[in-house]
């Protein structure tokens, strides 16, 4: 039930981390991939890896804060592969971290624009394309931070990612009658470049691992398997969820 044969998927933030792992897995399961990110080099490497394995993929560079980029991703999916069935809106930023009173309004707005407004812009163009296919699966990468756990110094990050859950629930109710499922994926600590930047010392990383019930962080490939579940017919009755894939960080107190 996890086959993605004949499906077309947009993946943003696809040049590294969870986005890259998800794009590779979805392609391996048969999906045609429109891979989006700001960095061309990482995208070209990804596309080459998919095509060498017999898959289909195309790269589109741009900034998720730019609505024209959202339009171009959908246009490319339609022109190159015939439509759109799945979108993983995964690109994001931690933004500036530190005490909330020291966070500038400009920094606050930039983080919300990157993590939350970009998701609205993406959905605004992805949903009509999915309707033309008779349905689809829309996925937003959120986080447990600001949902089940409060971490000092992450106000803009937490608020923007928590906002994705409200967007998810609204769109799930709005488009459920038209066969579009909408879900938020909430990874725990995952060994990605962004997570390493946020916790950039051995001591900090060990602290992140200790927060989890499993006493380790996830690999991007582990989170990608949850993406595959949400993207595929395996989750045909799953919509409007904030799906924790967090290694028990939300419940752990040891």
Contiguous helical run count: 8
**Structural classification:** alpha/beta
Helix share of residues?
Answer: 40-55%
Q: What order do the helices and strands follow?
A: EHEHEHEHEHEHHHE
* Spatial strand order of the main sheet: 3-2-1-4-5-6-7
Q: Spans of 5+ residues with little confidence (pLDDT < 50)?
A: none
Q: Which assembly state applies to the chains in this document?
A: single chain
Q: What is the CA–CA distance across the termini?
A: 37 Å
Q: Supply Rg.
A: 17 Å
- In the CATH scheme, the class would be Alpha Beta
Biggest sheet features:
7 strands, parallel
Descriptive account of the structure:
The chain is α/β, with parallel strands linked by helices and 254 residues long. The protein has a single domain (8-245), classed as Rossmann fold (3-Layer(aba) Sandwich). Helices cover 46% and strands 15% of the residues. The protein has helices spanning 17-28, 40-52, 67-81, 105-132, 155-175, 193-198, 202-211, 220-231, and strands spanning 8-12, 32-37, 56-61, 86-89, 136-141, 180-187, 242-245. Helix 1 crosses helix 8 and helix 3 packs parallel to helix 4.
In short:
The chain is 46% helix and 15% strand. By secondary structure, the protein is an alpha/beta fold. The relative contact order is 0.15.
Task: Produce the secondary structure layout.
Blueprint: E1 8-12, H1 17-28, E2 32-37, H2 40-52, E3 56-61, H3 67-81, E4 86-89, H4 105-132, E5 136-141, H5 155-175, E6 180-187, H6 193-198, H7 202-211, H8 220-231, E7 242-245
Parallel strand pairs: 1-2, 1-4, 2-3, 4-5, 5-6, 6-7
Helix pairs in contact: 1-8, 3-4, 4-5
């Amino acid at each position: 039930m996890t086959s993605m044969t004949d499906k077309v998927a947009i993946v943003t933030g696809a040049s590294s981390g969870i986005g890259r792992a998800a794009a590779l897995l979805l392609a391996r399961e048969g999906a045609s991939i429109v891979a989006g990110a700001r960095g061309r080099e990482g995208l070209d490497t990804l596309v080459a890896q998919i095509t060498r394995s017999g898959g289909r993929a195309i790269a589109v560079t741009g900034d998720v804060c730019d609505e024209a980029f959202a339009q171009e991703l959908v246009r490319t999916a339609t022109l190159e592969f015939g439509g759109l069935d799945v979108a993983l809106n995964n690109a994001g930023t931690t933004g500036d971290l530190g005490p909330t009173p020291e966070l500038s309004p400009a920094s606050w707005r930039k983080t919300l624009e990157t993590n939350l407004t970009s998701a609205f812009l993406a959905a605004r163009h992805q949903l009509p394309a999915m309707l033309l296919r008779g349905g689809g699966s829309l996925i937003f990468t959120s986080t447990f931070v600001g949902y089940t756990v409060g971490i000092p110094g992450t106000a803009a990050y937490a608020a923007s990612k928590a906002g994705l859950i409200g967007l998810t629930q609204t769109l799930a109710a709005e488009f459920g009658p038209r066969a579009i499922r909408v879900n938020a994926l909430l990874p725990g600590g995952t060994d990605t470049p962004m997570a390493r930047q946020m916790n950039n010392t051995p001591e900090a990383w060990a602290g992140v691992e200790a927060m989890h019930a499993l006493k380790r962080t996830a690999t991007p490939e582990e989170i990608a398997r949850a993406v595959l579940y949400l993207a595929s017919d395996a989750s045909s009755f799953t919509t409007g969820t904030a799906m924790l894939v967090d290694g028990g960080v939300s419940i752990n107190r040891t």
